[in-house]
TrEMBL record:
InterPro entries documented for this protein: Aldolase_TIM, DUS-like_FMN-bd, DUS_fam, DusB-like, tRNA-dHydroUridine_Synthase_C, tRNA_hU_synthase_CS
Reactions accelerated catalytically: a 5,6-dihydrouridine in tRNA + NADP(+) = a uridine in tRNA + NADPH + H(+); a 5,6-dihydrouridine in tRNA + NAD(+) = a uridine in tRNA + NADH + H(+)
MF (Gene Ontology): flavin adenine dinucleotide binding; tRNA binding; tRNA dihydrouridine synthase activity
Keyword annotations from UniProtKB, A to Z: Flavoprotein, FMN, NADP, Oxidoreductase, RNA-binding, tRNA processing, tRNA-binding
Gene3D superfamilies: Aldolase class I, Putative flavin oxidoreducatase, domain 2
SUPFAM superfamilies documented for this protein: FMN-linked oxidoreductases
Domain DUS-like FMN-binding: 13-305
Cofactor(s), names only, from the UniProt record: FMN
Superkingdom to which the source organism belongs: Archaea
Protein name in the entry: tRNA dihydrouridine synthase DusB
A Pfam family per the record: Dus
Function (record text): Catalyzes the synthesis of 5,6-dihydrouridine (D), a modified base found in the D-loop of most tRNAs, via the reduction of the C5-C6 double bond in target uridines.
Amino acid sequence: MKIGKVKFPGNILLAPMSNVTNLPFRFLCREYGASMTYSEMISSDAVIYENVKTFRRGRSYDNEKPFGIQIFGNSPRVISEAALKIEGTYHPDIIDLNCGCPAKLLTKDGFGAALLESPELIHSIVEKLSETVSIPVTAKIRVLEDMEKTLKIAQLIENAGACALTVHGRTRQQQYSGRSDMEYAKRIKEEISIPVIVNGDIVDEASAEYALEYTGCDGIMIGRAAMGNPFLFKRISHYLHTGGMLEYDECMQRVIDIRRYFSLMEEHGLMHTINMRAHAQWFTRGIRNGRHIRNNIAEAQNTDEIILRIEEMCGHTS
Ligand SMILES: Cc1cc2nc3c(=O)[nH]c(=O)nc-3n(C[C@H](O)[C@H](O)[C@H](O)COP(=O)(O)O)c2cc1C
C-alpha cells in the first residue's frame, strides 16, 4: 500500500486507540504483521503548551516504520505548529488528523468527531497541515447519517491535500453501539482517488476479507478486536495471503503475548502508565475459561501473578 510517498507492504493497519496502542503493544502487532501503526491521539494544545506526558505518546521504537502520529484539536494554526514540532522531534512518517473521537472530553471543545459539523474547518486544518509538514497527512473520520454530506467531507479532505482517509462507519451519536456501516467506505472509495481505509467491526479473517471485497478499499484498520490479541494480525494476514486458517493454540498464544507485553512495558519503563489488570483482562477475552480467569486476575498483585493465574487456568506452564 502507498500513502503519499510512504510505501509499505500489506494493507492491514492497527487503529489508533487511546490507552491501548502504546509502544509495546504496537511492537507486538507489527511483529505479527500489522502493516502500519499509529500512536494514541495527541492533543495539539498539549504539544504546544509542553505537556510532556502527552507529548511522549509520540515516541516510537527503532524500526517502527511506517509509523503515524495522530493529532487532535480544531485550530489550523495550533494543529500545524504542533505537527511541525512532532515532526521535528519524533520523525513520524505520517500525521493523522482525528475527526472521529466521540468522547465528550474532546467534542465539548469542538475536537474529534465535533469537527464533522464544520466541513470547511476540516478543509482548512488539512490544508494548513499539508502545507506545513513535509510528510503525508491523513485523516480519520466517522460518518454522518446523511451519505451525501459524508461524501462531501471526504472530497474536501482529499482536495485539501490529504494522502489517505480512514472511514469508521459509525456516527458520532452511535459511539460504539450498533454496527459499523461499510456502505460509507464503499461509496467514499468510489468518489475520491486517494487511498481509503475501512474501519469498524473487523474482528476476524472473514470480516477482514468481506470488508476489502465489499468496499473495494485499499486497506483495513483494526481496533478493538486487536486489544489483548495482537496475534490477530498474523491470523488475518495469513488468511488473506493463503486462504487458509492458521492452526494455533489460542490460550497458549495469549500467555506468550501477555508475557511479552508486560516484559516490553517494563523494558520501556511504561508499566506505571497502565492499569495492568485491565490490560491483562483484554488478553483473556474469547478464550476458554475467560470469565473465570478474569475473576482470578482481579486479585493478582503483580504481573508475575497475573501471568501465573492465566497459565494455570489455561492448563499450561512454560
Ligand atoms: C479504547 C479505545 C480508544 C480509542 N482511541 C482512539 C484514538 O485515540 N483515535 C482515534 O482516531 N480513534 C480511537 N478509537 C476508535 C478506533 O480507532 C476505531 O475507529 C473504533 O474502535 C472502530 O474500530 P473497531 O471496530 O475495529 O474497534 C478508540 C477506540 C477504543 C475502543
